[in-house]
Structure formats: C-alpha cells, structure tokens
C-alpha cells in the first residue's frame, strides 16, 4: 500500500490558489524530493497532504486510507521547517523528542519505559546523546534539525515528511543527515523531502518533483531537473519584501 497518494490537490489562501491540482505519490521505500523556488507552494502541498492545511479540492490517501479517516498518526513522521518548529520554544532536546511519542499514549500520563527507550534510541541515532538536556535554542541549526528528526524517529514512523531539513545547515551536518536518511530508507522507510538544494542528499533521491507557482513542472530522475537553483532569484525578492528575516528558507 503506497504511503501517500494525492490527486488534484488545490489549496487556496484568501482566494488565491497556491497549490493547483497537484498529483503526488510516495511509494513504499521510495525517497521523493519536492523541489521548487521559495513560495512555489511546496510546504503548503505537503502540509495539506498530511492534513495540517485544508484542501480546496483534491483527495489524499495515506497508507490506503482517505485522509479524513486516517487515525494511525504514528505511521507518519512530520519534520517541520526548523524556524516554524523552534522559534520561541525553550524545550530541551529530550522534551522535543519525547513529544514524538505522544501518538502512542492512550491518555495523558507518565512516559512508559518503552517511550523512554525509544526517545533515548532516537537521540543517540542522530548523535545528540550528550546534548539531550540542552535547550533546543542553544544548539546550532544543524543540531536543531537533528533533534527534530529524532522526534520523527521516536515515533518509528513509516513515512517521513521533512520540510527543508538542509536549510541553514552546514555541510558536515548535511552529510550526517544524508547518512541517517540513507540508513532509514534501507530499513524500509519512505521519505518525502522538501528542499531548495539537495547537497549530499541528491544521491539518495529516487524521484524528483518540481513545483512552480503551485503546479508540477517536472517529475522524474533528479538529474533531469534544470534550473534547480533558480530559487535564488525568488529568494532575494522574498528577502527584499521581508528584510527582517535572516537566512535560507527561514520563513
Ligand atoms: N497560512 C497562509 N496564509 C496565506 N498565505 C500563505 C499561507 N501559507 C503560505 N502562504 C503563501 O502561499 C505561497 C506558497 O507558500 P509555501 O510556504 O507553500 O511555499 P514554499 O514553496 O514552501 O516556499 P518556502 O521555500 O519559502 O517555504 C506563498 O506565496 C505564501 O506566502
């Protein structure tokens, strides 16, 4: 059963279509990259596909179940854009990762030893064992990103949806991320990754989908993607409109 099948997805904000009738699939064990410039609708599309943003039109099935009936949230690991997730959150690495286990709890209560073991394993896996008590906002961008990934790992998700995990992350951390994601795919995970630039992740991608102004303009091997870094053109325009916003993809 395919982890994700989306058909004809349209999302409108204030009467403007920012995603226009997009089809998107992620097969079992597949690593799909969703590429495109700033504002092309990538985040909105993936957020709609997992039910975080309402669709104006279209259908989505997660693991063969229509989105509206999908209850197995634990099968899904969402790694939001770092800025969206981290801004103003004083939590420690451990707390953030432990929040990934909430889907397993039948009611609010203490963590079980199984929860604690899953949290510790996920933190170790991303190489943050010695930082688990650090506040997230004291860590580097790359470490924050790894903590967010650990949260998704702690849920033992089958489909990981990651929004720009490489944005603002140095090359060494991108390499760590590539190794980690490569290992997860080998273990059978499916991944939908939103990105501007793929860096060391490029070699892992099975299929690329390019969005432009809310529509798919390319789908196929990553080597066939042209003008991948046209994003910078838009990117600068975005910054001029939002001069207070620092860094790549930090909106
Ligand atoms: N909640 C919202 N309300 C109104 N407009 C929105 C909202 N979220 C996104 N938009 C607009 O929708 C368009 C697509 O945004 P989206 O974040 O999906 O693009 P993106 O391709 O992911 O870009 P980025 O790389 O900057 O995240 C943009 O013009 C954005 O301003």
Automatic annotation (TrEMBL):
Gene3D superfamilies in the record: P-loop containing nucleotide triphosphate hydrolases (3.40.50.300)
Keyword Magnesium listed: no
Family annotation (InterPro entries): AAA+_ATPase, ABC_transporter-like_ATP-bd, ABC_transporter-like_CS, Metal_Ion_Import_ABC, P-loop_NTPase
Alphabetical UniProt keywords: ATP-binding, Hydrolase, Nucleotide-binding, Transport
EC number(s) on file: 3.6.3.-
Family matches, as PROSITE patterns: ABC_TRANSPORTER_1, ABC_TRANSPORTER_2
MF terms (GO), sorted A to Z: ATP binding; hydrolase activity
Catalytic class of the enzyme: hydrolase
Species this protein is from: Aeromicrobium panaciterrae
Domain ABC transporter: 4-238
UniProt xrefs under SMART domains: AAA (SM00382)
Descriptive protein name: Zinc transport system ATP-binding protein
